[in-house]
Amino acid sequence: MKKLVLAIFFVCFIYNFTYARNFYFSESGNDKANGKSPASAWKTLNRLKNLKLQPGDTLFFKRGDTFTGMLDIKQSGSTNKPIVITAYGQGEKPIFTGSTAIHNWKAVGNNIYEAYINTKIYDVFENNFRFTPARYPNKGFLKIDKGFGKDSLSALSLQEPDGYWNDAILRVRTIDWVYETRTVAKYKKSLVIQGPQDRYFIDKSFFERTKNGQTSLYEFKAGYGFYLEGLPQMIDTAFEWSWKNNKLMVQLPAGKSPKNIKAVTQHYGVFINHHIKNIIVKDIAFEQYEKAGVGSGWHVSNIQVLDNQFKNIHGAGILLDSASSYCNIKGNSITDILGKGISALEPNNLTISDNIVRRIGLVRAQGFTGVNGATGILIYNTERKKTIDNTFAHHNVVSYNKVDSCGYNGIRVDGYNNLVEYNIIDYCSLTLNDGANLYCYGAQPSATHHSIFRNNIVRYSIGDSEATPDNPNLAFGIYLDNNSNDVTVINNTIISTGASGMVNNDASFKNSFIGNHVFNCQEGLGYAEWGNLGKIFDCVNTGNVIASNKPSQKALSLKNFIGPVFQVGKFDHNTYINTKSSTPIYFETKQIPEHAKLHLTFEQWRNFYQQEENSKAVTALTDWAKNAEAEIIVNDTKEDKTYTLDTAIYYYPNGEKVDASIILKPFSSMILLKKSK
To answer: Quick one: 246 and 180 in the same domain?
Structure first.
């Protein structure tokens, strides 16, 4: 019996000893080696194709080296023994790249080169410089003269022979917040008949609206813009390219060689298959992929993406498909992505923290089609569900991220019981309109509710109206869009937005705006009802300080375009500051036969709305504040910070003088009034 026990112990010991394995990869390695040490490292990712990974396995990639291709993860780790993909050695992070060097070039024209490659090409780079897909016109947009629903458009600027633009890619702005990618199914003089595209994912929410992806999401409308892309005959400018009939063609400046050009052929750097668990991806640099640096299938769990770099990727830096759970995305640098920085569809218990996300969606109409593109961090839902389905995003945390320069939304978090806190979100809505630095939306009231947005620094929303019929630029700081309810917006700082600093849009109800500081926005806090009469109600607005320095700016704006009454909720303990205006409040309702458009003093507003008993205003009517301007001081660090004031005289909004220095807590701000001596 003793021998049997010892034998079982020995077998278990050997099993556990071999359960966790280390495999090494190096540019100087050899795929015929065993891969079990740096001295016997494998050379390429191909060596993993027939290897079944086990819990506890670690794949080590040598720092400073470059590896081409994709890791396809089909096995799970365990809770205590995850499968790890990481780096070893000294120096820069190892690079995973989805681009392939092209060698068989031949000159075919004036500075034009051609190479045969029978793999589909998605992008072309030299080092990290992205070539432009051949396009017409080379810059800007053509104008739609007439749209025919979702089927076709007419542009009188197109006078080429019939069929000339057949099979071109059509990049078109169909509404302020959307670019759509289609193909030209047929061209007849000035008439472009659209067809389906196969490059970008069509959200299943919109299958019905697009005839299963066969048409655009929105109708083509006169005055909006488009351009055509991808055909060889469009190449007429240096650094343009096209790939058609297995021929890659590029134009270069005179005297420049194509020898360093690479073409993107891979979809993902690491792809984690459906239902896989317990994977760690750490300390890898991902460059030049089509869909994502790290991507997943649905229902993955306990995936950790830590301290990686992502840049020059077409679709997304990190992409989690439906219903991921308990994943962690932390400490990554994600830059120069055409589509989205981080994207997760209906996750739960996802943590996104301490990431740097910059320059997302800045090439108009590239990287996505339809809604939800050009966004820094995106947590969203399938918006229009055919069946009863409660798999909405929930219990996610987005914190301490720096998001800077996004084409559309900086951070979008839909769903319920989410927490968005201590983020810095700067410069958004740079290539699209009607977006925000921080945004949420619900297609139905049960989708987005009971979330908290707190202690975020939100600055500089811009808005972009290129390729529209001269629509005004429109962008918001914090935007609670349709059907969002029971959302708490508390202790945020919002600075310099093109529209409202904070806005509660149509059919969003029972939301709370508490203790926020809003500075130099076109409107400080805005409510708008335009489609669902009486669906904004029981909102709470208290403890906010809203300051402006321009006469045209309004601290508070309430607009009802469909009804004569607008009671959105409670207002009290707020402070409104604008020393350049005596009427900081705007109130508009739909009257018969005309609108009522009221520019109100604070006293008129208080009497009119019968609230704000404990609120106050500092305006052009305030004697002690004459010749004073509002100024905001912001601490966007994780530490307490002391600010020494200059030689001017500073006042608190209650008229009390300020001492020579003030201390601000992390992610907080203070609005003062400044007078020169």
So the answer is: yes
* Residue in the structure block whose two tokens are 């601290």: 555
Instruction: Dump the DSSP string for 193-262.
Output: EEE---SSPPPGGGTTTTTTTTS-SS---TT-EEEEE--GGG--STTEEEEETTEEEEE--TT--STTEE
Asked if residue 404 lies in contact with residue 438, where contact means CB atoms within 8 angstroms, the answer is no
Residue 398: CB atoms within 10 A of its CB come to: 27
The distance of Cα 465 from the centroid of its chain, to the nearest Å, equals 18
Q: Which residues pair with residue 664 across a beta bridge?
A: 641
**Same domain for 108 and 240?**
yes
Nearest of 578, 553, 557 to residue 568 by alpha carbon = 557
Our count of domains for the chain comes to 3
The percentage of residues in the chain with a pLDDT greater than 70, rounded to a whole number, is: 96
- Domain of 130? 100-259
Identify the DSSP state of 472.
P
Length of the chain (residues)? 677
Note whether 39 and 120 are same-domain residues: no
Taken in order 359, 360, 361, 367, is the CA torsion positive or negative? positive
Same domain as 58, residue 110: no
Secondary structure of residue 100 in the 3-state scheme: strand
pTM assigned to the model: 0.95
602 SS3 class: helix
Neighbours of 395 (CB within 10 A): 16
Within-domain flag for 473: no
Report the alpha-carbon distance of residue 317 to residue 299 in Å, rounded.
19
- Please give the average per-residue pLDDT across 140-165, as a whole number: 97
- Reported as a single tens digit per residue, the pLDDT across 36-53 is 999 999 999 999 988 999
Q: Are residues 87 and 159 in the same domain?
A: no
Residues 47 and 123 in one domain: no
CA angle 414, 325, 70 (to 5 degrees): 105
Q: Say if residue 174 is exposed, middle or buried (CB neighbours under 10 Å; 0-12, 13-18, 19+).
A: buried
Check residue 9 and give its pLDDT.
Answer: 45
**Whether residue 652 sits in one domain with residue 669:** yes
Which residues on adjacent β-strands are paired with residue 192?
Answer: 153, 187
